[in-house]
Specification:
It is built from twelve helices and no strands. By secondary structure, it is mainly alpha-helical. α2 runs antiparallel to α3. The protein has one domain.
């Protein structure tokens, strides 16, 4: 059952529906007038909450994938013991990141349109209110990541794409600080977000230090993947050699020269 759930393409539409549900609920609530006495403030807070939640979900995909492998091996499941069994989780990372960016844009747009009001007031807030500057910087870092999330961008940027998308870590730190600095007394959600972000970033640092990071998956289209495959094939070739000749890459024997016996003889 677990294999069918992961491999049957259920996760992608399910992720889309879960990410789109808040926007649908806000639209219905705004039209019905059920968002409270200050609907703009409610939408501003909710959009920021979901932007941060989905950003953390994006970072949690890789740890969740590795923990799923460990759990499957611990309970001796047939499915899930290999890292490749959970590639469907990796495919949700792009969608989660784009939804996070979209909610962050809504968050900033509501602030600019109904709180700051003018660009001059926004510039003053940038200078006088540090959490505004931190949030704006986080969104600015997410912008190139959203623009280069396509397969075409991955192919064109190659190795630079991986370096560029490491900006997500800096954006997460800035977004967490943005939430903590503007959090009101008694509101613990911003501190919870900061704690989760710290844990996820610590996992990344530990994985990097111990050399246990997962190999780039097909979605990242890492240019080093063909080289790795070539090295694996080269290491396997000596075991299959006969008479000093390596086997062909396609697995077929080379054509036998004319005039030779059917049985090869090694000196």
């Amino acid at each position: 059952m677990l294999r069918h759930l992961v491999q049957a393409g259920v996760l992608t539409p399910l992720t889309f529906m879960l990410c789109a549900a808040p926007a649908l609920r806000w639209s219905i609530g705004f039209a019905a007038g059920t968002l409270g006495p200050d609907p703009i403030a409610a939408l501003t807070h909710a959009s920021g909450w979901w932007a941060m939640s989905l950003l953390l979900a994006t970072l949690a995909v890789t740890p969740l994938r590795r923990m799923s492998v460990w759990l499957s091996r611990s309970v001796a499941l047939r499915f899930g013991r290999r890292i490749g069994d959970w590639n469907a989780l990796i495919r949700q990372r792009r969608q989660l990141g784009l939804w996070s960016f979209g909610y962050a844009v809504v968050h900033l747009g509501l602030y600019l349109g109904f709180d700051a009001g003018t660009l001059h007031a926004y510039a003053q807030d940038l200078a006088e209110r540090p959490f505004i500057a931190l949030g704006s910087a986080a969104l600015l870092l997410l912008l190139p990541l959203a623009l280069t999330s396509t397969q075409r961008a991955i192919r064109r940027l190659k190795r630079h794409w991986l370096r560029l998308h490491q900006l997500v870590y800096a954006a997460t730190v800035l977004a967490a600080l943005h939430g903590v600095l503007q959090a009101k007394l008694g509101h613990v959600s911003a501190w919870v977000f900061a704690g989760v972000a710290a844990a996820l970033l610590a996992f990344r640092l530990a994985a990097h230090a111990w050399g246990t990071r997962a190999q780039p998956d097909a979605m990242t289209a890492s240019p080093t993947a063909p080289a790795s495959a070539a090295r694996a094939a080269a290491s396997a070739a000596p075991a299959a050699r006969r008479c000093g000749e390596a086997p062909p890459a396609c697995g077929r024997r080379p054509p036998r020269p004319s005039g030779t016996n059917r049985r090869s003889r090694c000196s």
